[in-house]
Amino acid sequence: MLAIPPLTSSTFSSAPSLFFAAPYNLQLSSRRFRVFCQSQSKTEKVQIRRCSPFLESSLLSGNGAVTSDEWKAVPDIWRSSSKKYGDKVALVDPYHDPPTTMTYKQLEEAILNFAEGLRIIGVRPDEKLAIFADNSCRWLVADQGMMASGAINVVRGSRSSIEELLQIYGHSESVALAVDTPEMFNRISKPFYSKASMRFIILLWGEKSSLVSEGNKEMPPVFTFMEVIELGRESRSSLFGSYDAKQHYVYEAIKSDDIATLVYTSGTTGNPKGVVLTHQNLLHHIKSFWDIVPAEVGDRFLSMLPPWHAYERASEYFIFSCGAEQVYTTVRKLKNDLAHYQPHYLISVPLVYETLYRIQKQISSSSLVRKLVALTFIRISLAFMECKRIYEVWS
Q: Which residues cross the membrane (predicted)?
């Protein structure tokens, strides 16, 4: 242990007026601040910020760090994809309001803005943030923005029971909540107000005015998805436009063995168990897909599984690292979207393929008349969808 001698008046009388951070640098890890003694009369707090090393290499290089284009954290993939595929369409989300199409450049920018917006509203490295929402483009931006800020996200779908969501939120020690819609939050609000501590709420879709307060309990600050994006955009503009603005922060690179996310099991054998995944865990899956999926730039994938499903999540990250286009669909819309978008790949689980196989087998084993009727209706349906697609394109 390093022994620090006591400071006396004689010490100061012979000491220079400027002190360096070491060895008298104090790190307050619980609040992510370091205290630097710069003079006898001035003490400055410098906030520690974590960032994805390749994605935000410009911030790290400004602090004397050595940067490279090697992926160390999952959000690093967005810088690579933005450089390679820029104006190509990355995703299509047709069923949310508003319907959204984003290029790779736009997606990278949204993730960077969301990450910075989280820092502005007070998210600190290694804090847990819950995302209780279904698959959408905004889920992806929130997920990657959280990781890029150095936070750890805790994921689950909107259709889980209130008891399960509350148990996951408490067990993970989450400090805030990103929720799908006002309807979902209103469904879970009563137990969350009484039993959970929420520093703030982020609403991915919908309006804040639709949220219902619970009796006389004070609602924590609520931010819409676009408000977080705008806060981040303004802050990033300030950081890159002013040298002084950067002096309040020290940027540290996220490491591969840092925790990226907590994924909870189905809970069929009791309460859901939290599975810890590091950035390296997820990057390994992304790179492994390259050996088995011959995806090419411009290929189209159809996405229908919940994003907190580990297979879906790794598959999505892989898709975007290849320059492919992802289209969001649902079980209800799957039949129409297969015909409409004609994807090269469908990300799914065996149950869906088994269902499709059983339908095909029933048609094949039917009498000649039934088979002709079924195939006729399928052809008519496909022709109708193609005509509808052409009409929508030209109308």
A: none
